[in-house]
Give the backbone structure.
Amino acid sequence: MLEKIVTTDRLTKVYSSGKIQVIALNEVSLSVEKGIFFGITGPSGSGKSTVLNLLGGLDTPTSGTIEVEGRKISQLNKDELARYRREGSGMIFQSFNLISSYTALENVGLPLLFSGVPKKERGQRASDILKVVGLQHRCSHRPAELSGGEQQRVSIARALINSPRILLADEPTGNLDSKTSKEIVKVLSRLNVDHGVTVIMVSHEEGLLKEFANEVICFQDGKVIAEEKIR
């Protein structure tokens, strides 16, 4: 039996605006095995991005627990959460969030700056990661000089720079055409298979997830309504 890297127990998130309450997640219990490609799908507003933000430490639950490698991140304080986001998990978003005035190499190495890594080492490590995603030949280019797929590869490399055990991808193909989308998911799959990174990806493209993921769950109205182990 494979080791569990992520588990949630009755995870609930309620957003309040005055007297109005919106239940984004409703007592969700799930588990993710270490080293797999785990897909999350469902319609807009179903809770899939909310659960990813909670797993990434970008938000805190209203109730319930999240354990990552046996550590309850749902109980971490602000400083501990910042350290977890920096070192424990890497996150990729639909928008690339690259700094336009920085080169690909500088964008990838930026998280290391906040960790106090010297400039020379930042450059070397960023260069090594860009090779992993197939962009070593574009390291001196700025975002405006890169295609959408190349920009997303840079953001993937940036998410990997601190060697996280978990890579969280929130609609990473949302701004890309179908051909480029498949290329990006292939990159994530290769990182999973060749480097052992656990990938948790949210996408409304269920077919694309099923082509690459080991397991896919479907959200609706804040709950998991279907689970499928594919390979």
In short: The mean pLDDT is 94. Residues 4-229 form a domain with the Rossmann fold fold (CATH 3.40.50.300). The first helix runs from residue 48 to 55. The chain has one domain: 4-229.
